[in-house]
């Protein structure tokens, strides 16, 4: 999985709904395919669990990145406002310095003027002007005095104005400093939020990458287990082919024995009738031999072998529990292919007693690659077919050789490829799987 630095915000499915769907799949795996590899079921569950977390993790990352982007924009805006406020403060400080210099210069001029008046005890030269005796000279000197007084008044007025401007500039500078300080704090807060948001986004990115790594590992484990499970399935098919051959050979020998016995009976009957004819006796119409209703191979006859309805020949192998999975084709929730569920699953606790469904001979009792502890009972010829039953995933096997109907042969378990305690019960006709309900 390749992750970019930024992901678009997807339309996230409801994680709860996705979890419910996965739980349903797992329940389907447990309830309908108990004979699936437990390791495969675990790998599948782990894979789906990580896959379900990915959309939520991507959503968290997208939100964190959006928050970080907004925080960066707010930080940039705050920094710009701070720069403007600092520029305004600098300009106000420059204006204040200029106004301070002008006030100082005005005060200096006033001081010099006052000092001159004090030193000259009056207007000095102006007194000379006023002491003039000629009218024109007096008028000129009087005009000069007016000019001096105007200059003095103008200087005082300008000084007053400059001092007022100075006070206003000081107040303005104080306000700008407060504004700069506020915007500086806002910029610092925006920077902290942006840093925090970026850290959250980085964590979300790291979490998503870690989850993607987990998903990849889970996918690899799942794929490896699928391959192993398929190898086990192939092994089961090889074992089934071997068992079919064994059962077919046993059925052929049973048929041969039955045919030989029937031939011997027919020959004996022919000899008996020939002997009676030689003595001149005549039959009364009844047969002293006739059909025995059975055979030397252990066949009990049963009901019509071609019927699809229950014959009742086989007894229920367990006396508790319920059927959690029937015989038949079904869609595998992991492989997503149709495959045969070759028997009936009885939902029982581990350690539940398991009984022989009919009389017969145990021809296999031990551990197999996928079935775990397994018992195979050959029931001989029944209604013309070689009938056998199997009992799988047992926790313990306690019987061997010939067994009678209802005899304890073992205890249920979850050995082999099994996701939980149950009994997987199979019925075979001439080595081929058939629906056990036909015989129960």
From TrEMBL:
UniProt keyword list: Coiled coil, Signal
Residue ranges constituting the M23ase beta-sheet core domain according to the UniProt record: 340-436
GO MF annotation: an example: metalloendopeptidase activity
Pfam families, per database record: Peptidase_M23
Transmembrane stretches, start-end: none
UniProt xrefs under PANTHER family: L-ALA--D-GLU ENDOPEPTIDASE, PEPTIDASE-RELATED
Name of the featured protein: Septal ring factor EnvC (AmiA/AmiB activator)
Organism: Phycicoccus duodecadis
């Amino acid at each position: 999985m390749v992750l970019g630095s930024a992901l678009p915000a997807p339309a996230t499915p409801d994680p709860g709904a996705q979890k419910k769907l996965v739980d349903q799949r797992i329940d389907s795996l447990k309830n309908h395919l108990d004979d699936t590899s437990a390791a495969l079921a675990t790998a599948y569950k782990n894979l789906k669990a990580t896959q379900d977390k990915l959309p939520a993790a991507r959503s968290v990352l997208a939100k964190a990145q959006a928050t970080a982007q907004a925080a960066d924009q707010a930080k940039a805006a705050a920094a710009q406002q701070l720069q403007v406020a600092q520029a305004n403060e600098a300009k106000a400080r420059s204006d204040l310095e200029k106004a301070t210099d002008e006030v100082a210069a005005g005060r200096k001029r006033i001081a010099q003027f006052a000092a001159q008046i004090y030193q000259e005890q009056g207007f000095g030269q102006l007194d000379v002007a006023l002491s003039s005796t000629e009218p024109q000279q007096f008028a000129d000197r009087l005009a000069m005095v007016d000019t001096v007084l105007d200059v003095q008044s103008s200087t005082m007025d300008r000084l007053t104005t400059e001092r007022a401007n100075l006070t206003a500039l000081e107040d303005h500078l104080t306000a700008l400093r407060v504004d700069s300080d506020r915007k500086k704090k806002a910029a610092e807060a925006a920077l902290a939020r942006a840093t925090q948001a970026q850290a959250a986004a980085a964590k979300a990115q790291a979490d998503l990458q870690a989850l993607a790594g987990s998903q990849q590992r889970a996918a690899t484990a799942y794929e490896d287990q699928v391959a192993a499970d398929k190898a086990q399935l192939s092994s089961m098919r090889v074992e089934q082919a071997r068992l079919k051959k064994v059962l077919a050979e046993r059925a052929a020998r049973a048929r041969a024995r039955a045919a030989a016995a029937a031939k011997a009976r027919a020959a004996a009957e022919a000899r008996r009738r020939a002997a009676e004819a030689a003595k001149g006796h005549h039959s009364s119409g009844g047969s002293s031999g006739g059909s025995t209703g059975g055979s030397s191979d252990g066949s009990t006859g049963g009901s019509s072998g071609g019927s699809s309805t229950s014959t009742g020949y086989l007894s229920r192998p367990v006396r508790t529990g319920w059927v959690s999975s029937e015989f038949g084709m079904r869609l595998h929730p992991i492989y997503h292919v149709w495959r045969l569920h070759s028997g009936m699953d009885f939902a029982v606790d581990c350690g539940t007693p398991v009984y022989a469904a009919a009389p017969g001979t145990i021809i296999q009792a031990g551990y197999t690659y996928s079935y775990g502890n397994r018992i195979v009972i050959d029931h001989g010829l029944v209604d013309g077919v070689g009938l056998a039953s199997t009992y799988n995933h047992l926790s313990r096997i306690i019987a061997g050789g010939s067994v009678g109907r209802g005899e304890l042969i073992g205890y249920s378990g979850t050995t082999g490829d099994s996701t939980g305690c149950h009994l997987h019960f199979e019925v075979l006709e001439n080595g081929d799987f058939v629906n056990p309900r036909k015989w129960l």
